[in-house]
Fold this protein.
Amino acid sequence: MLQLDRISFSYGGGTLAIDGVTLRFEPGELVALTGPNGSGKSTLLKCAARVLVPQSGSIRLDDQESRQWLPKAYARAVGYLPQNPEPVVPIRAIDVVVSGRAPWLGRFSWESARDYEEAERALRLCDAAHLAERYLDEMSGGERKRIFLARVLAGEPRLILLDEPLTALDVAHVQQLAALLRQVVERTTATVIFSSHELNWSAAYADRMLVMNRGRVVMDGRPREVMTPEVMRDAFGFDAEAVTTAGRTWIVPRV
Amino acid sequence: MNSASDLRRLLFLIALLLAIVATAILVGVTFGASGAGLRTLFGSDPTARRIVMGIRLPRVLLAALEGAALAVAGLTFQTLLRNPLADPFILGVSGGAASGAAVGIALGIARRHPAAIPLLSFAGACGATAAVFLLARRRRGVDPIRLILSGLVLNSFFSAIILVSLSLSPNSDLTVAFRWMIGNLAGASWNDVIVLAVSLAVALVVLVWIANDLRLFSFGEEDASGRGVAVERVKLAGYATASLLTGAAVAVSGIIGFVGLLVPHLVRMAWRRDYRHLLPLSALAGAALVVTSDVVSRTIAPPLELPIGALTAFLGVPFFLLLLRRET
């Protein structure tokens, strides 16, 4: 459904943040985008979300150039969640979630009862229906992440791009949210691409793992192909051991 | 919670504020230095009539428009910059507008073409908006503290421009400079009312057009872009409109500070909702605040009159400090 063809991007001259990346994504995939800090993960997601326009290469959604899509139509198909969306004024969770319906609204129209139903459905899917009337600034980090995920889901996108949805969460919440991403893929048949530094959790839940380094995709494969000491050393720069228990491979840093 | 009950609540608040504005206007027209009472309003005395129609009514209407324009400008700056401390005066945009007018007066343009004053104010406001934005910009968005500091520095610069150009102007008179620097509604004319009413109408059309986009700025520009907003176009339209409002407001009354800061916050205290709700509510609450302040400034120590800009500063400065404490 999404096809990136030799795209390159740089922030105002200098080095390339994305350096000739070619990738293809199919419906119903849960894809983990990994790589060290500054390897281009966020930039790649922003290009795919049409927030940034690559200087060269082409991005095609459903075989149509992304630039040729109307912004709203593209936003209906692709739901993007930036790394740290911070509201500046206090806002209720339900208002955040229903704003995910924005791409479906006309210029002067207000959210209808149906939009609120979609928002509530998305909240239930994220196990956050009880938070609807609470204000965002009174919530924990994990609750907030679920609200923002619900907001993306409320827009009923077919492609979901999440920038580090697992960061700043404790272990229990990381597990909850990773499992939730799995559920989203299974229940909505959307494609989910999320960037993450949580290698083990990503490997446990994703169908496919990408490893980026200096703007290039250096690995693209199933989790067990990526979770090897060689990849960790070459792409991430740390010594690790691979430990296999109960049919799953875990990466353990060597100390 | 659904949109129907939201809409009912919005309409109720609009009706309530309209009633307050109407009352304030009525009170403003009734009370004044030359005698009070409804008799002056409905009586047949030609002098009283002239005072009401020629002096008080345009002044009170100008106060209402001034409040609406400044509140909407403040709300729009706060929304676009994602900074609750933004206000046309604090950002230096009002100062830029007044400088534009002052330079026009100094060069004698204003005497030959009085209509040039609002245009020069608008140009000054646009220049100041661009300047404060460029000064505060960082690689990732606008830094909130730099923004306030840039506005502070620009304000000093613009005060200097106003003082220099008005003291160098033919038959220089520093009370004129004073009038520009601290807002004043005395001497309001029907012409002023028309200039500001037309500017406000144009601005509201544009802002209603982009209201559904502006509310999505609350989580940042990248997030808005991801929701299908044409961010650059909306920003350009929003900044230009807020500058137009500030330019027109300053052109007819000098700098009245802090209205754009106070009003959107007071409205948010009553109802924490998005830009589409805050736009009409801020306009009406701004009108109510400035009309009331004007009545107070005229009647608190008759026959003396406080400059209204001083009054709004007395209200606004403690409020600003309170917000600053909460935000940082």
Summary: Chain A has one domain: 2-253.
